[in-house]
Amino acid sequence: DEELSPGFPQTVPYSDGSAVKLYGGGFVWFALRIPNYPEVEDESTVCEPFYSASNDATQTISSLNYPDNYPNSESCISVITSNNSRHVVRLEFSAFDLENHVSCSYDSLEIRDGDSASSPLIGKYCGSTSPGTIVSSGNALYLHFSTDSSVVNTGYNASFTAFLVPYTNLALSELLAVAEQQDDYSTDGEGLAQLAIDGNTDGIYSNGHVSHTASINGWWKVTLAAESYISYLDIWNRMDCCQGRLNGAKVLVDNTEIGAVEQVQGVQQYKIVVDLAGREIKIWATSLWRNTSAS
């Protein structure tokens, strides 16, 4: 309905931001519509919904605008998934600074153990206390970052990668773990290396579930089918005699020492925190024979 004055070209704007340029005069006019193309957003302001985790690369995930302040009134859902169903996802935070609230009702990062909003809640985080390191039980983590309309901070930055499922019992046949030791104490089938991961923690040597080397300062090791994230190692000592032989035994993952057994008389089980990716676990005695049952 806009009245056009003589001459050309003339522009007729539309409410959506586009326009029509009119060329001509009198009874002959040509129209060319010019669309309104949106500006491309900076990548740091875009909420990325999907991340693919792998065991051969470490990637990063961060809040919108990081390391600058995140925007108000945002809701960003991201899912980190590995294509391998036997993988778990490890998420490690290097920076964390959200608006604080006793129940995280203002700005928050919600992390769930799975790929949806109905997956089990791991935690809802805010303030400046970092979630630290989080490892999923399956091959996915769900993150929901939300902000209110007031205070803004720098947000968070984290790295993630994938590993094979953490081993909780090396005796499980499907794990294909292979045990070896420096030498065998006996030639009659007793004390063999594989007995330490047979799933039976009976500490009586004669019952056939304890490994035993012949050499002083001998070693025992287990090699996993593939590099995996190992959260901890349980070592079970023999209980019929000779418990001190395990005292001071070094625990190594891929030849890196991560701890040692501090033997206590009458105690059978010793937990060694590993929290590393690796394939070969070695227990190396420092006194007399190395003989133990492990799981």
Question: What proportion of the residues is helical, as a percent range?
Answer: under 10%
Oligomeric form: single chain
Number of helices: 0
**In terms of per-residue confidence, which ranges show pLDDT below 50 for 5 or more consecutive residues?**
1-5, 32-44
Q: Estimate the mean pLDDT confidence.
A: 79
C-alpha termini separation: 84 Å
Radius of gyration: 31 Å
SSE string, helices as H and strands as E:
EEEEEEEEEEEEEEEEEEE
What portion of residues belong to β-strands?
35-45%
User: How many DSSP E strands?
Assistant: 19
Task: Give the biggest beta sheet.
Answer: 7 strands, antiparallel
Quick structural summary:
The protein has strands spanning 10-13, 19-25, 28-34, 50-53, 59-62, 75-82, 87-97, 108-112, 121-125, 133-135, 140-146, 155-164, 178-181, 211-212, 219-237, 250-253, 256-260, 269-284, 291-294.
Please describe what this structure looks like:
There is one protein chain. This protein is 0% helix and 44% strand. With 295 residues, it is mostly beta strands. Strands 13, 14, 15, 16, 17, 18 and 19 form a seven-stranded antiparallel beta sheet that branches. It starts with 9 loop residues before the first strand and ends with a strand.
